[in-house]
Amino acid sequence: MAVRNESDLEAQSQSVAEYLFLIMLVLMVAVPVSGMALSVSSWFSSIYAKGEYQFVSTKNLAEQLLNASTRIRSLESKLAQNELELARLKQESRDTSRLRSLLGLKSKAGRVTVSAEVVARNPDNWFEQVVIDKGSADKITVGSAVISISGVVGQVVRVSEHDSVVRLATDPEQKEGVLISKLGLTGTLVGNYQNLARIDYVPIGTNVDVGDKVVTLGKAGIFPDNHPVGTVAAVRRDANGASMQIDVKLSENCYDISQVLVLPPLEN
Amino acid sequence: MILGSVRSRKRLGEISIAAVLVLMVWLIQLALLSKFRFGDVLCNLPLTMIIVWGVTFGSPMPKPTNDELRVSTLPAILVRQLLSGSPSGAIIGAFFAALASSVIPAYPFAYPIIGWTAGYFSLKNFNQAAFLCIPLVLLLSFLGEILMAVQLSLMGRHEVFSHLVMISFPEALLNALIAPVLFFPMRGWFEFSRWRHMSTE
Predict the structure, then answer these.
(1) Which of A157, A192, A193 sits opposite B105 (nearest CB)?
(2) Angle made by CA atoms B142, B145, B146, in degrees to the nearest 5
């Protein structure tokens, strides 16, 4: 009986040892495996988190870039519009000041005046002419004087119902009576294309100086009297040496005019 | 009868296109090009178009054969040569001259004369015509300005010849520079109308 008990105890203790050994074995394998699994999962999760972060940040950056480019485009178009508006306003301001000056001139002239705008220039190089947007419907007649605030522009040579042709002071056919106000010397100013206009047949010995003001004579009832024409640019003897020739720099730049005032001739 | 009506409709269409072209060129010259001066000189688009028209469309007279030339007398050859200008060039010139005379106090006879004369130098059968049209426009513009100067001088305008020296060279140069711009589309139109004409026949 005691032997049987001893053998049972031995068998039981052997099986307990086996169990313990198995448990130890399982633990020895499972702990590193679980640690490895844990580290692999954490490695994967960190890579995923990094990738997600990169993706989200790239997406945000792209969105910001798109928004910025749209904004830049809209700002650029706004800027272009503003620049156009500014140019228009500048032009309008120039026109307004010109018109204001013309209005002042108009009230000063004390006779019938018509304000007009230059719409075209002569089509060739032989004639110095411009076309204005007012004609016989606005009481403009052939021979009307055309002036601006700066000086004499020319004279109307052809009239239609709603436009007129103006021969500029630079045309050699255009002649007008002028006065060198400092001396009270009168003369006839003749155009000379793009060159300086000139006054011929001035008596030798006349004390004309460069810079003297030349104004309109205004005796024929066409041009107003004492309106600026230009300044003396040079004085010299003519080809014969019998008289002097005066070069006059016109006050009005006939190649850059937009608004003018037309003065129909005075009757009688 | 039907063919005739188609032809006359085509002719009418071509005349309308020409009229629109002429008016466009005139407006461009009057309102746009006259604002741009190069060394105080304007380029003359109408004159350039007249010359380019003349050299593009040329004369409708057929070229004389060698046999014809052999049996012709010198006066007959000269008369034939004189008559072989460009009638359409002269008409376009006359049209432009009429438009010009509405603005300037003269009818520029030089325009139709130059239009006719340009027909003598027809570039119909030249491949490198775009390059040849440049010296032709230069020479004919210069000739046109001389004719204009003579006319104005006869009309009693002052200082014409001194002004001629000042403007004719730069103007002719400017005209010559813009000539290819007009020549290419004109040549295209000419080729197209010739092709259409041949396809109709």
Answers:
(1) A157
(2) 90
B30 contacts on A by Cβ (under 8 Å): 120-121, 123, 131
- Phi and psi at residue B64, to the nearest 5°: -65, 145
ipTM: 0.75
Buried-exposed string A120-142: b where 16+ CB fall within 10 A, e elsewhere:
bbbbbbbbbbbbbebbeebebee
Chain B: nearest CA to A129, how far in angstroms? 8
Q: Which CATH class is domain B2-200?
A: mainly alpha
CB contact under 8 A, A121 and B46: no
Measured CA to CA, the distance from residue B82 to residue B141 in angstroms comes to 19
DSSP state of A200: E
CB-based contact A116:A98 (threshold 8 Å): no
CA proximity to B45, closest of B193, B186, B175: B175
User: Tokens 């004087």 correspond to what residue?
Assistant: A145
Cβ contact B153:B110 at 8 Å: no
Please report, in tens digits, the pLDDT of each residue of chain A (268 residues total): 566 778 888 888 888 999 999 999 999 998 889 899 999 999 999 999 999 999 999 999 999 999 999 999 999 999 999 999 999 999 888 888 877 777 777 777 678 888 898 988 888 888 888 899 999 999 899 999 999 888 899 999 999 999 999 999 998 889 989 999 888 889 999 998 877 899 988 888 888 889 999 999 888 888 888 889 999 999 988 878 788 899 999 988 887 888 899 998 887 5
Q: Which of A121, A164, A193, A253 to mutate to test the interface with B (most CBs of B within 10 A)?
A: A121
Closest CA to A177 of A196, A200, A156: A200
Interchain contact, B103 vs A255, CB within 8 Å: no
Sequence spans of domains, chain A: 114-263
Domain ranges of chain B: 2-200
pTM, 2 dp: 0.70
Interchain proximity A127–B42, CB inside 8 Å: no
Query: Among all residues of chain A, which has the CA nearest to that of B26?
Result: A123
Is residue A134 within 8 Å of A114, Cβ to Cβ?
A: yes
Q: Which one of 2.40.10.340, 3.40.50.2000, 1.20.1730.10, 2.30.30.30 gives the CATH number of domain A114-263?
A: 2.40.10.340
Task: Using alpha carbons, select from B34, B43, B50 the residue that is nearest to residue B176.
Answer: B43
Which residue in chain A has the smallest CA separation from B31?
Answer: A120
